[in-house]
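Record filed here:
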Amino acid sequence: KMNDTYEVCDSYPAVWAIPTAVTEDEIRAVATFRSRGRVPVLSWIHPESQATLTRSSQPLVGVSGKRSAHDEKYIQLIMDANAQSHKMFICDARPSTNAIANKAKGGGYEPEDAYPNAEIVFF
């Protein structure tokens, strides 16, 4: 119930489904690296395959290409939570040109070299 007072993310519910291996301090560190504190949280699990949809906001990489060891570890923990998962798709609902342009405003997208076993897909 880390978000029960909505201090970490005011647009998320009080209770989140997150990997048990992550600490509250690590989640708070991830939140500082994500726009509006929107850390990746479980949204849906397929009843048969156990494939998941995890939702978040853009990372704050900016033009300098900032990275967050906490964010990178957390994304790996999400993938590791499903023993059948060997690859993660990070789906960005924006066109790639918009995601690239957002770097100038301090946003951006996950660089594939920072997230092993992940492939980014733009819509």
In short: The CA atoms of residues 59 and 71 lie 9 Å apart. The chain is about 25% helix and 15% strand. Residues 24-122 form one domain. The chain has a mean pLDDT of 94.
